[in-house]
């Protein structure tokens, strides 16, 4: 099946239909994915769970994956991949190797770096039927929709997001 892109809304997002791991080597598909990411800002792949190495390979299509700031909780084989577990309810459910699993610290987009990553990849392995929402927004579109007077008021200002503080700078 040929890979297809189906827009999810006018604001952002598109579903990638028909993608398989073998597509990781197909230049036409890679170009389509890169162009679609730039156009829609968010791509949704509905597929079987990816191993850390395949997850890394998929991410590499969009740029060089970077290591997260939290260094103690990484996959030993693929350190650019971090596994989060939030579903255990009792002590016996806790993962055996806590060095490879993050149990908190959900801010994974690394937006606190001076030059943040271009993209964040998330893979839901155990998705709740209700709740658990992750929300995305198109800040470019939101800015473009602002009144001109408000854009002028914002001109020249900048925001600072720091890892080590939650206070305004």
Would you write up a description of this structure?
By secondary structure, the chain is of the alpha/beta class. It has a domain at 62-127. It contains 4 helices and 5 strands; from the N terminus they run E-E-H-E-H-E-E-H-H. The protein has a 3-stranded mixed β-sheet, with helices on one face. Strand 1 (4-7) and strand 2 form a beta hairpin. The longest helix is centred in the N-terminal third of the chain and has 14 residues, at 27-40. It starts with a strand and ends in a 15-residue tail after the last helix. Keywords: Dioxygenase, Iron, Metal-binding, Oxidoreductase. InterPro entries: TauD-like_sf, TauD/TfdA-like, TfdA_dioxygenase. Residues 5-167 form the TauD/TfdA-like domain.
